[in-house]
């Protein structure tokens, strides 16, 4: 459990780093008349993602979940791949990447990196991580609850993002 705790704490630190990047990028986009959309769902997203990390730590302890190598090692590989994809998205979007939906009117849609292949590759990373990270230490309940709640949130989030991009951005 010690190594798993360190993994979850490392993901928490990574999330804090994301917030630092997001704040810097929000200032950059707002300085260019960026328009924010979807403020109402943002607090729900914060609670959900915080709950994921808490559940990852609490469920194995409270429910005495074991580390199962046949599940844990592949789940760890997927969780690490999700992190790599997330940072590929962040670096590809540069100052346009944010945890909020802020669009600079007239900006071109990004069609490089993972965005050549998918419209919302960052959400692939979120989905994979949300299932894989808890399963590293057999926290199947956390993985299930997060995945279901996240599906609802992503439905709202992707609609919001698509509407914002359609309204303000220029196709790549």
Automatic annotation (TrEMBL):
Protein's name according to its UniProt entry: Isoprenylcysteine carboxyl methyltransferase family protein
Location(s) in or outside the cell: Membrane
Organism: Actinospica acidiphila
Principal subcellular localisation of the protein: membrane
Lineage start: Bacteria, Bacillati, Actinomycetota, Actinomycetes, Catenulisporales
Domain of life: Bacteria
Keyword entries, A-Z: Membrane, Transmembrane, Transmembrane helix
Membrane topology type: Multi-pass membrane protein
CC annotations in GO: membrane
MF terms in GO: protein C-terminal S-isoprenylcysteine carboxyl O-methyltransferase activity
Pfam families: ICMT
Coiled coil: none
């Amino acid at each position: 459990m010690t190594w798993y705790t360190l993994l979850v704490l490392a993901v928490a630190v990574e999330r804090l780093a994301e917030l630092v990047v997001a704040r810097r990028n929000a200032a950059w986009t707002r300085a260019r008349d960026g328009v924010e959309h979807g403020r109402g769902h943002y607090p729900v997203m914060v609670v959900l993602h915080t709950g994921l990390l808490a559940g990852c730590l609490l469920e194995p302890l409270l429910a005495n979940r074991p580390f199962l190598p046949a599940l844990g090692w592949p789940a760890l590989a997927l969780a690490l791949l999700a992190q790599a994809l997330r940072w590929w998205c962040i670096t590809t979007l540069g100052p346009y990447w944010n945890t909020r939906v802020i669009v600079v009117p007239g900006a071109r849609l990004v069609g490089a990196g993972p965005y050549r292949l998918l419209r919302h590759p960052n959400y692939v990373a979120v989905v994979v991580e949300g299932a894989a990270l808890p399963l590293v230490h057999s926290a199947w309940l956390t993985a299930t609850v997060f995945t279901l709640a996240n599906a609802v949130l992503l439905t709202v989030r992707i609609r919001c993002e698509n509407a914002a991009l359609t309204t303000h951005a220029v196709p790549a």
